[in-house]
Design brief:
single chain, about 80 residues, alpha+beta, 2 domains, three-stranded antiparallel β-sheet, 3 strands, about 40% helix, rod-shaped
């Protein structure tokens, strides 16, 4: 293993990554934490009503907590 071989491998890797980045469409790139936070804000808050589940025995409706990733039951008069 020589220093020039390591340099050539590094240059080749950088060139391949640059080409791959240029040819990949924005829609096919992975989401970042910033993208996910923007999506949560777009969905108007932390909780999203689950429409295909009935209310529980206390009259509370199911909501998906986008931050915690869990299902919670909230009353209708709860501010979301």
């Amino acid at each position: 293993m020589s220093l020039s071989g390591v340099g050539n491998a590094t240059a080749g890797t950088l060139a391949a990554d640059a080409i791959k980045s240029l040819l990949t469409k924005t829609t096919n790139k992975p989401a970042t934490k910033g993208d996910l936070k923007a999506l949560i804000e777009t969905l108007n808050g932390r909780y999203h009503l689950v429409k295909n589940m009935p209310a529980n025995e206390f009259g509370q409706y199911p909501y998906f907590d986008l931050v915690e990733g869990v299902l919670v039951y909230l009353s209708i008069n709860t501010t979301i």
